[in-house]
């Protein structure tokens, strides 16, 4: 009776609830016990009714503010179960329990392209989609760049989209000449990073090929001709005066390249 007048059994001011931790990660259980007098209670931990002993993966710590911690690293499937923390002193004891669920270790796969970006052309003023499909575990973060400029947010005209099946899309409403250029999409997760680049060309109406007959793509035989076209030079004026105009005449059966 005199002991019960001076000492009181412990009670917990702080206790964790049920936990789910991934296999291979760190698990920490924090609690704080309090009593109205001395002695300070002793704490012990049990797993499924069996005492837990400190070892290389199980550590028990006490901080100056009275918080007791059970730290498990790395967590394995054997650590799953019902944990009980018991605080006891001369006046009695108190306890709490929680369930630890150990989730299977996450499979990590670096991102890969199932479908890559394709070079695309669009008539000025029309919408265009740059599309690809990516897989990876965990689901990768997606980053878009135009030339060396990152596209970090959506606007009413240019927006970035993705779904749960790995399809990625950059949508441009009303393409302009300024939208032409090289676009790069990158996918990154904990296992790696992958990138893909494609060209977007924006044409005026007169540049568009006929809808009925799609021209065949053949490599130009005159590299100088192509180079001068890229510079926007007048072909006839650029060639030497003594050049025979016949050389510039398309031979039967030859088809002009899209690049020209």
Automatic annotation (TrEMBL):
Matching entries from InterPro entries are given as: Ig-like_dom, Ig-like_dom_sf, Ig-like_fold, Ig_I-set, Ig_sub, Ig_sub2
Which Pfam families would you find in this protein's record?
Answer: I-set
Check the record and name the SUPFAM superfamilies matching this protein: Immunoglobulin
Q: Where is the Ig-like domain?
A: 10-101, 111-201
Which keywords does UniProt give here?
Actin-binding, Cytoplasm, Disulfide bond, Immunoglobulin domain, Phosphoprotein, Repeat
What domain of life?
Eukaryota
* Localization terms from the record: Cytoplasm, Myofibril, Sarcomere, Z line
Q: Name one GO biological process term.
A: axon guidance
List, alphabetically, the PANTHER family matched.
Answer: BASIGIN RELATED, PALLADIN
What this protein is called in its record is PALLD protein
The organism encoding this protein is: Quiscalus mexicanus
Give the encoding gene's name. Answer: Palld_0
